[in-house]
Amino acid sequence: MLSPSARFSALALLAIVAPAAIVAVLGYVSIRQWEASSELLYREQARDMAAMAAEKVEMTLRRTQDAFLDRVQAAVQAGPPSERAIDGLLADAPLIRRLYLVGPRGDLLYPRAWREGDQAIFGPYVSATALHKLVREGRRDVVAGNQVCLALLTARSGAPVVAAFLRDVETLRRDVFETTLGTFESPTIIAVLDHEGRTVYSRAPIGDAQRLSSVAFRDALPDWRLAIYQSPGASPRQAVRRQVMLFTGALGILVAVIVAGIVATWRLIRRETEMARLKSDFVANVSHDLRTPLSVIRMFGETLEMGRVTDEARRQEYYRVITREGERLSRLIDNVLDFSRIEGGRRTYDMAPTPVEPLVRSTLEAFAYPLAQQGFKVEVGVAADLPDVVMAADAVGQALANLVDNVIKYSAGDRAIAIDVRTADERLVIAVSDRGIGIAREEHARIFEKFYRVGRSDTQGRRGSGVGLALVRHVAESHGGDVTVESEPGQGSCFTLRLPLGGA
Ligand code: ADP
Question: What's the pLDDT band for 2 if we cut at 50, 70, 90?
């Protein structure tokens, strides 16, 4: 049969620790899966975002260019383009650099002449054959050779006119990329790479950030790409790892709290079990203590009543035994009643200045018979001119009686009692020493606990309820004093009661 605490531990293990372990394992497995799938999801999201961002950039670029080309188309439609009018339009469009308007036969309509080196750049795209092809395809704007943009316009006569121009990369960066991509809400880094893979724009320094995804722009920026980089510390793996650490930490704390709870409850149960055992011992001890003097009184009383004792000296002896056992009974009952008052918080103390020596001597007097009968050597030392001390005389007398009673109970071969009364540091000090069985060091604190009795082998056969010293301590502390013990097994013990001279 398992003890209650062992049963509790087994239950706690089953009910709490096992589910906690299962949660830990499941948590670990699902976190691993989560880590893998979130990586995948993260990359997919990056790809979607790159496509969306590229589209937005192209739209903005087209809108700016179209607005400009619409204005040029209007100017061309109005008649042969005036240089001043086109210059004015160019001044308002910082994105457009080096505009040339070319007629269907490759004739330059604006400006009057090619600027230095430009014919080499634009020439191949605005030759009659190239224009012919462009007209055949009917496309309004085309980017050729990564730099040159071509747009097909119509002159007043209905003849095709080609607008050829370059874009200003700085304006492209600032007015298109920055305004469009700068507003994207994402922890990643968005960058634009030109046809040679050079970074034209990036929202934050790329450093050695890992590229998550990249998409090509369409017609408006052929061969250019929009790339998404992972910001340092923002990888899904790192985020998951942080979560794992958090989860593990939380689980660890949870398990620690559970274990602490189990240990605390287990201790409580052990204490309760111990207390229950002590209480039942107490009841048995008190009953036994009551029965012994009662049967002695009865036996001697009956013998006397029957008039069988004729010898006067024996009769006197019997009376003394009855009186002594009666006193012992009273002491025992007083102890138990006081203890119950203390437990119920009802014990009160009537303090009054009290002469100490008479109190000590009368207490000892009550034990004169057993002390003499068991051959105790008694020594009493009371300091001269002790002042009266403010105390509850009956309570202190009872505490002292408990100490003397213990000396009688726990002395074996060397029977001696010494009571020393003096003052020190504004306190009355009463020391009761013996040369009895003594108390092991580790028991010194516990013997003052209620119901506690030292290991059965030592106290076996000695009557006692286990509340005597608890009472002594209560009396001492209620007076603002204390009680201490010095003792070695086999050497004897010395209990010292210290009370303030002026009362509590
Ligand atoms: P009890 O009724 O058992 O005497 P107490 O509270 O008076 O209860 O004492 C608690 C325990 O302390 C005792 O059971 C005994 O083991 C130990 N004890 C008390 N006084 C002495 C002493 N003078 N010498 C040896 N052991 C003592």
Answer: low
| Residues 392-431: tens digit of each pLDDT | 999 999 999 999 999 999 998 899 999 999 999 999 999 9
Domains delineated in the chain: 349-500 (3.30.565.10)
CA 496 – CA 429 distance, rounded (Å):
7
Mutate to test the pocket of ligand 1, among 328, 410, 414, 463 (most ligand atoms within 8 A of CB): 410
Q: If DSSP codes are grouped into helix, strand and coil, which group holds residue 299?
A: helix
Residue 457 has pLDDT above 70, yes or no: no
Categorise residue 179: left if φ over 0, alpha if ψ from -120 to 50, beta otherwise: alpha
Atom 20 of ligand 1: nearest residue by CA position? 406
Closest ligand 1 atom to 466 CA? 8
**Candidate of 332, 409, 495 to mutate for ligand 1, largest count of ligand atoms within 8 Å of Cβ:** 409
Tens-digit pLDDT profile for residues 228-276: 998 776 666 777 778 778 878 887 898 888 889 888 988 999 889 888 8
Ligand 1 within 6 A of CB of 75 = no
Residue 149's DSSP bridge partners are 143, 165
The model's pTM: 0.56
Confidence band, pLDDT 50/70/90 cuts, at residue 461: low
| Ligand 1 center to 485 CA (angstroms) | 11
The CB of 69 under 6 Å from ligand 1? The reply is: no
Q: Determine if ligand 1 sits within 6 Å of the CB of residue 406.
A: yes
The answer to whether 387 and 501 have CB atoms below 8 angstroms apart is yes
- Residues near 450 by Cβ (< 8 Å), separated by ≥ 6? 278, 339, 343, 466, 467, 470
Instruction: From residue 215, give the alpha-carbon distance in Å to each of 60, 223, 230, 340, 469.
Output: 17, 10, 15, 88, 88
Rounded CA-CA distance 388/502 in Å is 9
